[in-house]
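Before drawing any conclusions, I looked closely at one protein, both as residues and as discrete backbone shape codes, quoted below without any editing:
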Amino acid sequence: MSKKVAVLVVNPVNGYGLFQYLEAFFENGITYKTFAVAETENVKTNSGISLKTDDVVANLKGHENEYDALVFACGDAMPKFGENAGKQFNQDMLAVMQSFSDNGKILAGHCAAALLYDNFGAAKGKKVAIHPFIKEAVKSCIGTDEKYVIDGNLYTAQTENTIGSLIPELIKVLK
């Protein structure tokens, strides 16, 4: 039986990255649910395409035990996080990530995902693939120039252009 995945969708999300995950999950029979890191289920891609997620991150909080893995679909995550750091949806996102980490569940993502995982200690001492522009911002993990890195329960890809290298490995552990 395959594992169940919660997918965090920032607003705006990188559609190319998000759809690579979702298509791979669908094609491999892996159950997933999308959660907007926003006040509503309505988000946009970086290119302005409107999307409706299954739910919002506030409704994932407290239900983390229903999922085996968490995927962070990046977009303009860090600038928007900075603008909205105090908003409840961002606090909910961090709490959900922390819960998955505390329970040793799979944490996957690309671009800034490793930076967020680093900020609350999930990546401490681990190697990660991270966007080259923010590689120097990580503190307790080891940022690499690799296309993707798997270290324990962390599955990270450098950018949306390298997710394709990570996905086969992620699918193996989720099946």
Remarks:
- DSSP finds five helices and eleven strands in the chain.
- The mean pLDDT is 94.
- The two ends are 7 Å apart (CA to CA).
